[in-house]
């Protein structure tokens, strides 16, 4: 079912969300295995409506793409999991058949009109729609044939390395083969350092390590206004309340100080955060709540 699209204005730009899937397969305890049960229950009681499934037992996680229309350009931020991909180690992304491209078209976005695809990191649920299966050749081909695809050089090289094709990275290795390498081979990739640089104009790739090797939050500026695409810096509103809780999906505890730093800034400046996995509208603002933070969907 296609939900009602929300649109956000940031300066001259319009930003919209196209959802691919909504997952309800993690309980808070499986998502945050180090969090004490009593504190989890207390936090679950405080997150805004729409954060949990109707039973209240599962955290809802959205997978989606942000569509930015700014000064004549069409830019996508993260591209979901994609259709028809073999994902034996992440069954909830295995051989999906969603209406993603039709939902993009309903927003008026044709694949050949996309100018840029920006990815926060190279995980399974962020690069999937980079490619689609071409039935004639049986090959994975670029979905957005004109777009420059901007991504971390460090993560690209990491997942090429045979030493990183097992264990924690085994899905990323599959993803590399069907969703990233075809983009590089087509000459459509801009492999960049994640060091705060601006590329393309108005988008700044800021290092927020911890979830992945070279994870980026992407700051967007237009006509004096600003928003932040947070990627997987955090996965659920529970982490706004408790930024020290790392999710089972994070690579290291380095994620926690990066999360706190971004939440501090967001609260201080009333910054619009465009998340990668929060449910409901997936966008919101951070307020202060005692020594901690509160989340409100926008
Ligand atoms: Zn993710």
Task: Provide a descriptive summary of the structure in words.
The chain is α/β, with parallel strands linked by helices and 298 residues long. The longest helix is centred in the middle third of the chain and has 16 residues, at 170-185. The protein has helices at residues 28-31, 37-44, 100-106, 153-160, 170-185, 238-241, 255-269; strands at residues 7-10, 13-26, 59-70, 73-77, 116-118, 131-134, 139-142, 148-152, 189-192, 203-207, 216-222, 225-231, 272-275, 283-289, 292-297. The chain has one domain (7-297): Metallo-beta-lactamase, Chain A, CATH 3.60.15.10. Strands 1-2-3-4-5-8-9 form a seven-stranded mixed sheet. Helix content is 21%, strand content 31%. The protein is globular, with a radius of gyration of 18 Å. A hairpin with a 2-residue loop joins strand 14 and strand 15. The structure holds zinc ion (ZN). The site of zinc ion has 6 residues, from loops.
Briefly summarize what is shown.
The protein is α/β, with parallel strands linked by helices and 298 residues long. 21% of the residues lie in helices and 31% in strands.
């Amino acid at each position: 079912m296609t939900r009602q699209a929300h649109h956000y204005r940031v300066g001259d730009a319009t930003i919209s969300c196209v959802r691919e899937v909504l997952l309800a397969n993690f309980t808070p305890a499986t998502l945050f295995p180090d969090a004490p049960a009593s504190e989890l229950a207390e936090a679950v009681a405080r997150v805004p409506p729409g954060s949990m499934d109707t039973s209240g037992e599962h955290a809802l996680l959205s997978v989606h793409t942000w569509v930015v229309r700014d000064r004549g350009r069409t830019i996508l931020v993260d591209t979901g999991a994609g259709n028809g991909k073999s994902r034996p180690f992440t069954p909830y992304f295995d051989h999906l058949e969603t209406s993603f491209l039709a939902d993009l078209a309903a927003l008026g976005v044709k694949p050949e009109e996309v100018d840029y695809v920006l990815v926060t990191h190279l995980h399974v649920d962020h690069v999937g729609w980079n490619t689609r299966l071409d039935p004639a050749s049986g090959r994975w081909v670029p979905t957005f044939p004109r777009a420059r695809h901007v991504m971390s050089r460090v993560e690209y090289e990491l997942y090429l390395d045979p030493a990183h094709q097992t264990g924690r990275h085994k899905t990323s290795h599959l993803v590399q083969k069907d969703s990233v390498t075809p983009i590089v081979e087509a000459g459509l990739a801009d492999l960049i350092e994640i060091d705060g640089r601006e590329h393309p104009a108005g988008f700044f790739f800021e290092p927020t390590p911890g979830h992945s090797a070279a994870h980026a939050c992407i700051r967007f500026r237009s006509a004096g206004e600003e928003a932040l695409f947070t990627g997987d810096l955090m996965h659920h509103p529970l982490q706004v309340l408790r930024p020290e809780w790392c999710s089972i999906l994070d690579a290291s505890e380095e994620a926690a100080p990066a999360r706190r730093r971004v939440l501090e800034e967001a609260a201080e400046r009333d910054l619009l955060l465009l998340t990668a996995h929060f449910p409901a509208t997936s966008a919101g603002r951070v307020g202060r709540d005692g020594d901690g933070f509160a989340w409100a969907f926008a």
